[in-house]
Amino acid sequence: MLAHSETGIIFGLGIGTLGYALRLPPEFVREAQESGAQQTRSGLGLNKDETYSLTDYGPDWWFGRWREDEDRRWSLAAYVQFGAR
């Protein structure tokens, strides 16, 4: 789990075999969509028939795709965004 050091707001999660998720600021959503990031995953985990939806946590959560720019740009942007609240 990644949380801002001052606000305690969570902006990153490791979710077992499903991968990881980042809570993105609104200005990064389009970039995430264009990179192929999704808010749901299916066919993974213990029950292969289930779909896991990050929208249960809120509309700003996206599954990462293990791209280098996610680590640098998206994580830093999320840290700054959720530290400002």
Query: How much of the residues is beta strand, in percent?
Result: 15-25%
- How are the strands of the largest sheet arranged? 1-2-3-6
Given the structure, what is the number of helices? 2
In whole angstroms, the N-to-C terminal distance is 19 Å
Enumerate the spans where pLDDT stays under 50 for 5 or more consecutive residues. Answer: none
Quick structural summary:
This protein has two helices and six strands; from the N terminus they run E-E-E-H-E-E-E-H.
Description:
Helix content is 27%, strand content 24%. It is α+β, with helices and mostly antiparallel strands and 85 residues long. It has one domain (2-83). The chain has a four-stranded antiparallel sheet, with helices on one face. Strands 4-5 form a two-stranded antiparallel ribbon. Strand 1 (2-3) and strand 2 form a beta hairpin. It starts with a strand and ends with a helix.
Question: Tags for this entry?
Answer:
single chain; four-stranded antiparallel sheet; 2 helices
List the helices and strands and how they pair.
Blueprint (H helix, E strand, L loop, with lengths): L1 E2 L6 E5 L5 E4 L5 H7 L4 E3 L8 E3 L7 E3 L4 H16 L2
Antiparallel strand pairs: 1-2, 2-3, 3-6, 4-5
